[in-house]
Queue: 3 jobs
Job 1
Amino acid sequence: MKRREFITLLGGASVVWPLAARAQQPAMPVIGFLSSRSPHEAAYVVAAFHRGLREGGYSEGQNVGIEYRWAEGQYDRLPELAVDLVRRKVALIASTGGIGAAIAAKQATSTIPIVFTVGDDPITHGLVASFSRPGGNVTGIYNFISAIEAKRFGLLRETVPTTGSIAVLLNPNYLGFDVQLKDLQEAARAVGQQISVFNASSEADIHDAFRAAPTAWHTKLADASEEATASSAAANASKNKIFPITNPSQPVTRPALMCRLGGALL
């Protein structure tokens, strides 16, 4: 072989070999992160998620990619966002911010693994068949938040012993609203507590509710509305010197939300 032909062949190989080597490397897995919240509200959740990945030997951008999808409190967007993640062929979907994200993910795919964190009963909502054998492609963590409503009513009565009816803020747009309301009503009956349920789908709704002037409040907002709505409830509580129990899935960072009972829902 002539020297010029050898150099030409070697030069061609130097182009082909790196391309072939790259083609043989497995593609970086991508996780779909689906949340009903906003990036700001869920900052502490994302931080915890990254810590968990690092403990498992994964680092975003190095050996795993993450596609974030935020509904920002607009629950009707969750199905569309979940379908978009499926189209992108993510390896796994992590659903956070309440039962709605998990439901949307399950409706979007029966093959991609889904891992959820919820405070509402996943069996009641049809996410899993049972705790011991979830079945299908869905599994996750249930914090039993809905199972301790009666205890939170009891804590609120101890905090405000003169209260009669306890006002409850609920977002009717939340995908788990019907079950959530039923759980609260059953918990109230179990402890003989009268409750008044108020719509909390917007700041205007919350202003109207607080003008009704009950003496004690029980909020269900952290996994059922965006940050702005929860902040509005806190601001109204401070203004009216009313102290509600914060939803257990939200860190206690607002002075008005003085009582808390429950786990940390991601």
Job 2
Amino acid sequence: MSKLLLTILAMPNTKPVVDNPDVVNYVHNKAKTVGLVNVLQVGAVTKNQEGKELADIEGMVKAGIPAISEDGKSVMNAQLYREAMEKAAKLGIVVLAHCEDKNLVNGGVMNEDEHARELGLKGITNSVEDIIVARDIMLSHDTGAKLHLCHCSTEDSVMMVDLAKQKNVKVTVLPGKVSKFKVKALSGGKINCTWKKQKYNNVKCQIQAANNSKFKKSMSSKTYPYLKNGKWTGKGLKRKKTFYFRIREVAKIGGKTYTGAWSSVKKVKIK
């Protein structure tokens, strides 16, 4: 593992919550003892992630945290979050944001669309993400804090980040995962790769095909960039060979390129 992963950021939503330098030191010392990868612990924004009182951000920075996050939730108190961003800007660390207005979730369990209605399940609207993205970007602009949006999955949130970059706000973004990715072998050496279409112009998909499940660059791995129409036929792949496929989002925002996480791997034998 140490040859594949050099450094990881450990999120603070653990038991106990990482909200003070003692827990930060424990994680860092434990990681050094085990010695598999380099671990940088992220600190919580608030004590016990309860959103009521700021954690010991200064103390955790002295212990070595590179960022703060309320990972898995948003700090709903905007004034408290502003104070955290002011501290982050002063101390030179990044704020990692999970943008979700928990009040607007209101018992929803999946994206609000026709599929949710067919299943009779309560949906979650895009505004749940968009409202917090807008708030966090404005607070970043006001405080000068470096903001990273960990899950950017709506059209409006992408547009807001693009606008913020044009105004030199210190914001970066991680695109979401591609959904409904399927691969099926067809006759004549073709395949049918499908996925949920991207709704916005500056976010497209990137497919990688390889003859090994680890996608080593030294073997027959090829990247097919910026596919947007939700379908691909596998042109150029050799017949009677087994290939592995994966896909991810690629977003161009404010002149920079951001890549999402790779999907699960699909294994198909070309006919």
Job 3
Amino acid sequence: MLREFFEKYQIGDAAVAAGVSGGADSLALLFQLDAFLRPQGRRVIALTVDHGLRPESRDEAEYVAKLAAERQIEHHILIWEGEKPEKGIEEAARTARYGLLCGWCRDNGVGTLAVAHHLLDQAETFFMRLQRGSGLNGLCGMAPLSEKNGVRLIRPFLQVHPERLKEFLREHGVSWAEDPSNRCDDYLRVRVRKFLPQLAAALDITPERIADTMSVLARSRDCLEEQAAQFVDRHVRWYEKAGFSVSRSAGSGAGVSPASEAVVAAAVVDGVAAVTMVADGVAVVAASVVAAVGIADASVADGVAAVAAASVVAAVGIADASGVFVIVSTVVFADCGGISPLSGSMRRMRWRIWRPSQRNSTTSPGCRA
């Protein structure tokens, strides 16, 4: 299983870190990674985060250290220090955990971090995101491979039922810790976990079927992202150290006049508080590094609208007032000539769509006709 995963995603690192809590899933991950990598002259490094939220957390971390030492696996305990929030502790702990794990990897030149999320975790994630109103990207669930805090994050067990992982440990005579928070109904994930067997019994909607549906959604997302990439290739012109533009023919290399193309400058420069577009009352404001756009008047000049801001060398051409203003992260550009982006993402960046006739509306990632 691990061999197929590593070959599929072309993971050839000499060392792979693994987040190991002391629970069954992460211990199974650690031992299986060690069995897979060691014969190849590669190694796994175990990282345990002590959140300090339970009296037994240190003992659990030391238990992982003991198991790792018995197998000559490098192990490090990372401690979440400082005050803990009274509310939102689950999310805060998750953020702190990944911050510590990824920080250690970056500091020590380890590019890949493995975590032990499994089939039930994926099914629980689906319902948690459904409850929160997630769209297509959210309902695809956790990705087997992603990037987090500058580190490649892999989840090789997403198609594996946790009972298989526990059976693996039983066969090797390894015991594991049980986190009492996994039984606490205060957490949404726990309530969803208890609901899944009822759903399977009453409607035959099993975790496996949910995972299959998530895979279908992921293929749909990938299709949309491919269409978005094709749109970028065909209609976006990139300017070295300046920005980019969007037009019908930008990707073709043909000459495009300012009347048909909106040239956009990178409007993010340290210390710049605002950028003001000077043309018939149209104002564009970029607050620090978070782009926020206010369009005071939909009418613009037929020519080029100049951008004036301290420390910013930029010129923006806007030819058609009916165009759609788009904010991609901190870069602003205009869709002139009625070109319609096919997806709500461009190279994994969130789009916010602004129409002159609907100046206060935004759209979340998704397809727009």
